[in-house]
């Protein structure tokens, strides 16, 4: 059978069930067909995670009941089962509502750094280093392994997943802003912040990193603008 909606995969910790967007009746049918093929194999198996693009709590409980009561599987407590919704589309739609020109303008005005600005109209790839005495604006993404270094602000109109060093000449008023702020390392002046070891949710709105009370803090662009 061609499982278009449901995918089972396993590792040493248990089974992970990934569910795509679709009618609940079709999802349950695919799950049951899959389990019926190897009922003895799945009996007593541990389900580590159930993830779905649009899986709400009630749908999760319905699936759990089938796995446990009909097929004898062991499902982690609901508090431990991660319901992963596909936020990528939501983030993209919300970001489109923020006009890029005004975003750049507001970020450059935020700390009076409307001076020299270098615009990069491409994705910054792994291994690339871009340095500039002024502001850097990237009209694209910064991939892991890509490095930006600016004496002023750094603004990324995409996903920042590499390294960003703003205020490289010691300016602690410098900012780092991105539509999706997910850097492996941030540095503003001499203050450094690294990506946490644990997995965190991707930001749904543009965010701004700045120095506050001697450490780098991150705030929502929308929250910042709402105070004006």
From TrEMBL:
Residues 119-219 form the Septum formation inhibitor MinC C-terminal domain. Keywords: Cell cycle, Cell division, Septation. The keyword Cell division applies. One of its GO terms (biological process) is regulation of cell division. The keyword Cell cycle applies. Belongs to the MinC family. PANTHER family: SEPTUM SITE-DETERMINING PROTEIN MINC (PTHR34108:SF1). Interacts with MinD and FtsZ. Cell division inhibitor that blocks the formation of polar Z ring septums. Rapidly oscillates between the poles of the cell to destabilize FtsZ filaments that have formed before they mature into polar Z rings. Prevents FtsZ polymerization. NCBIfam families: minC. This is Probable septum site-determining protein MinC. It comes from Andreesenia angusta.
């Amino acid at each position: 059978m061609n499982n278009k909606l449901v995918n089972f995969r396993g590792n040493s910790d248990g089974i992970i069930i990934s569910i795509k967007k679709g009618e609940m009746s079709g999802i349950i049918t695919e799950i049951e067909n899959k389990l019926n093929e190897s009922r003895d194999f799945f009996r007593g198996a541990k389900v580590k995670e159930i993830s779905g693009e649009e899986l709400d709590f009630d749908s999760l409980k319905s699936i759990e009941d089938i796995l446990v009561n009909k097929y004898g599987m062991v499902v982690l407590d609901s508090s431990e089962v991660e319901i992963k919704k596909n936020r990528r589309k939501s983030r993209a739609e919300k970001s489109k509502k923020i006009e890029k020109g005004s975003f750049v303008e507001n970020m450059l005005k935020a700390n009076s750094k409307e001076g020299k600005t270098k615009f990069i109209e491409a994705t910054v790839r792994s291994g690339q280093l871009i340095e500039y005495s002024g502001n850097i604006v990237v009209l694209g993404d910064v991939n892991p392994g890509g490095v930006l270094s600016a004496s002023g602000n750094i603004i990324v109109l995409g996903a920042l997943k590499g390294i960003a060093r703003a205020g490289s000449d010691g300016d602690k008023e410098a900012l780092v802003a991105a539509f999706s702020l997910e850097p492996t390392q941030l540095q503003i002046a001499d203050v450094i912040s690294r990506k946490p070891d644990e997995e965190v949710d991707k930001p749904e709105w543009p965010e701004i990193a700045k120095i506050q009370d001697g450490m780098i803090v991150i705030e929502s662009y929308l929250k910042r603008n709402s105070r004006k």
